Amino acid sequence: MDPLSSISAIAASGMRAQGERLKVVAENVANADSTGSTPGADPYRRKTLAFEELVDRAIGASMVKVEQIGRDDSPFARVHDPAHPAADDKGMVKMPNVNPILEMSNMREASRSYEANMNMFEAGRDMRNQMIDLLR
Fold first, then answer.
1. Is the separation of the CB atoms in 7 and 120 below 8 Å?
2. How far apart are CA 123 and CA 136, in angstroms?
3. How would you class 71 by CB atoms within 10 Å of its CB: exposed for 0-12, middle for 13-18, buried for 19 or more?
4. Terminal Cα-to-Cα distance of the chain (whole angstroms)
5. What is the pLDDT of residues 80-99, one digit of tens each?
6. Which of 22, 102, 116, 123 has its Cα between 20 and 30 A from that of 132?
7. Residue 1 pLDDT > 70, yes or no?
8. Are 105 and 21 a contacting pair, CB within 8 Å?
9. pTM
10. Number of helices (H) and strands (E), helices first, in the chain?
């Protein structure tokens, strides 16, 4: 594969990975207040994402892909709310271990990484178009 085509493949792998990251962040934010529905039940547990390097021998380049989507095992916060349906016998409700500030930070970083990969994709396309123009 020619170098200009490999630029597109590498940038596309980065955009796919960051898109998956944004999806996980969106799910975490959407469930930031999702508690259990029965007394003492566990609430939503924050999801995490791990990337890994993927070597594509066909194009001779290192790319990125999502290795796994895991769960954050940090403890749940507990709040006193005896009227809540998920309250235990002491009136304590387990709250999700989602930190909205951390999720917004992750969202911003994923968005910037996606944008950088998109710029690389466009730069490769522009270089390809310039080469075609030279050949005319």
1. yes
2. 20
3. exposed
4. 22
5. 999 999 999 999 999 999 99
6. 116
7. no
8. no
9. 0.86
10. 2, 4
